Amino acid sequence: MKKILYIILSILIVAALGTIVADIIIKVNSYNKVYSDIYKIPHNRVGLLLGTSKYFKDGTQNLYYKYRIHATVNLFFTGKIDRVLISGDNSLSYYNEPMDMKKALLKKGIPDDKIYLDFAGFRTYDSIIRANKVFGLTSYTIITQEYHNQRAIYIADVLGHNSIAYNAKNVNQKYGIGQYFREKLARVKVFIDFMLGIEPRFLGKKIEIK
Predict the structure, then answer these.
(1) Domain range list for the chain
(2) What is the pLDDT, as a whole number, of residue 99?
(3) Partners of 35 in the beta sheet?
(4) CB-based contact 54:149 (threshold 8 Å)
(5) Which of 17, 103, 174, 192 is least surrounded by CB atoms within 10 angstroms?
(6) d(Cα 38, Cα 36) in Å, to the nearest integer?
(7) CATH class of this structure's domain 2-196
(8) Which residues of the chain have pLDDT under 70?
(9) How many CB atoms lie within 10 A of CB 132?
């Protein structure tokens, strides 16, 4: 019995250390590549807007969505990006993150011909890989909340992309406490994905962003 407890304790310690190390590496890697000041961020032709749902399952508004839309609009109309690539989940007929976000951007005045959609961005890892392999991007600005940007930048760096990120407004800790813990696990998953050489669920034909 003691041996089993020792093994369980050892596994928990290793898992905890792995989570801490992954978190530190991703945070350090993003230093000087993630911006909150719109006047200091350099220009990139394309902004990669990472998708999320417009509403939560209980019907309440998703502030992550709202703030990402605002950040993208601000970048576009201050001349920091010229095109928007929205990458999100469209795995169900009634659930379409990219299209919902496109409609929101159109209402804010971004022209239709400046917006491109990636319907197979089922997770951040897929979105970053597809930005290059499908849409041909090597340099772009990632748009999402800071914690998410840090992980996305790490993925882009490992893949050799020349990317920076702009932080959408974050939500308070109470509102996003579940997301906080999911992010810690997602950071560990990134290292596992790279070690195993995981590919995106879909790639498909190349699409040119004109």
Answers:
(1) 2-196
(2) 96
(3) 166
(4) no
(5) 174
(6) 6
(7) alpha beta
(8) 1-16, 18, 93, 173-178
(9) 16
